[in-house]
Specification:
80 residues, mainly alpha
Length: 80
């Protein structure tokens, strides 16, 4: 895993980015980014931050298929 994080720590780190961008708490890892109030600009900010902080390519198309913390964590882990 990037930054020597286990899955739970990675989930927490992604959730912190998510919360910072949406200015809302993540209540569960399966919560939908867009349904939580995220817009296209915030979506691009999220992707950029994840790529910057974890050195991971996060595809916009793939993220939109399942826009959740869980899917971001899975994408990061798959590239580790």
């Amino acid at each position: 895993m990037p930054r020597d994080l286990d899955t739970a720590s990675l989930e927490q780190a992604v959730a912190e980015i998510w919360c910072d961008i949406l200015d809302l708490p993540v209540t569960k890892p399966s919560e939908d980014f867009m349904a939580s109030g995220g817009d296209s600009i915030q979506l691009l900010q999220l992707i950029s931050r994840v790529q910057s902080e974890f050195g991971t390519e996060l595809s916009l198309v793939e993220f939109l298929k399942e826009p959740t913390v869980e899917s971001v964590v899975a994408a990061i882990a798959a590239q580790a």
